[in-house]
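Lab meeting, item 3. Inverse folding demo.
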């Protein structure tokens, strides 16, 4: 086998920048109608990784003209008090959509919290009603928010003209933000992929990987996917994020789920950082803009 690097890069940073330009135009049109979209973020506690992500989301908002509403709550907040904060955002007209940054501290019940978000303000697409619509819609348009990371993966492949029709996609990881929902999007008729979901209970993940045309590595375990297990020419999305902080310098390094050497095996791959992360963030903006457009249409119709 050749040791030369051959894989082409799926550049999430550049793709997200292009999508942001389109969103900025839609935001400008909304502003002409007197509507400024606003994204709320709810951060519980002071996890450094979560703080970085939330800061990035607000920077993105500023770039496209979306207002930011930052809610920061103490680590030990009670579930009741957190739900009361969400209720405020549900009724705040300046907040078009919002997210609750995950993971939450252990004493809070994630599903109860996600269910308390008004479904039409669910910028993450993780409310059970929106996930349920995704389950129920095999064909036809979905006008409700879609989960951002799965949508980001699909839009990234689409941007590079990579067709998934009839392709075998192997997903590694069964998390709620990506592993579980992505198969629902990939198996819709418009996309038409076949999906295998591998997780810690899977007997022969390497065997499944060897069959994959496309790999979505989303376990959140550093270097869990070994390039030597993949079919040469596979398309590889490196989604999982592991942050390691150097105790001396305090500097964080990001590691993906795919071990080094992937350039020699894959035909296309998304780096990490610089791949699916920026796409996730742009999809969040897209959900907020779409909600604001729906609210504008409802206002215009006098509903
Ligand atoms: N309610 C909720 N929604 C989420 O979407 C959500 C979440 N909780 N919790 C954590 C995960 C993780 N996630 C990332 C978003 C952007 C980058 C990203 O933009 N990364 C940059 C690098 C950023 C850095 O330097 O840390 C990159 O890949 O180039 C990464 C990871 C969203 N998540």
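The presenter then showed the designed sequence:
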């Amino acid at each position: 086998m050749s040791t030369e690097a051959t894989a082409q890069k799926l550049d999430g940073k550049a793709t997200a920048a292009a999508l942001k330009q389109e969103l900025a135009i839609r935001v400008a049109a909304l502003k002409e109608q007197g509507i400024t979209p606003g994204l709320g973020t709810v951060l519980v506690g002071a996890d450094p990784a979560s703080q970085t992500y939330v800061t990035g989301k607000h920077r993105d908002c500023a770039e496209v003209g979306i207002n930011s509403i930052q809610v920061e709550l103490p680590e030990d907040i009670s579930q009741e008090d957190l739900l009361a904060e969400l209720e405020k955002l549900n009724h705040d007209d300046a907040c078009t959509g919002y997210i609750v940054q995950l993971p939450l501290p252990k004493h809070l019940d994630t599903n109860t919290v996600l269910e308390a978000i008004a479904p039409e303000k669910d910028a993450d697409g993780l409310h059970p009603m929106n996930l349920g619509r995704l389950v129920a819609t095999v064909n036809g348009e979905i006008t409700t928010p879609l989960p951002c990371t799965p949508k980001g993966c699909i839009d990234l492949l689409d941007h590079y003209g990579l067709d998934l029709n009839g392709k075998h996609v192997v997903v590694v990881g069964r998390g709620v933000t990506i592993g579980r929902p992505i198969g629902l999007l990939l198996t819709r008729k418009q996309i038409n992929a076949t999906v295998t979901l591998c997780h810690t209970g899977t007997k022969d993940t390497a065997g499944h990987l060897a069959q994959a045309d496309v790999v979505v590595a989303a376990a959140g375990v550093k270097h869990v996917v070994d390039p030597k297990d993949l079919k040469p020419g596979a398309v590889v999305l490196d989604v999982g994020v592991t942050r390691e902080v150097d105790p001396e310098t305090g500097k964080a390094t990001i590691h993906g789920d795919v071990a080094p050497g992937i350039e020699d095996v894959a035909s296309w791959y998304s780096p990490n950082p610089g791949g699916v992360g920026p796409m996730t963030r742009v999809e969040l903006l897209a959900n907020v803009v779409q909600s604001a457009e729906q609210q504008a249409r409802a206002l215009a119709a006098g509903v």
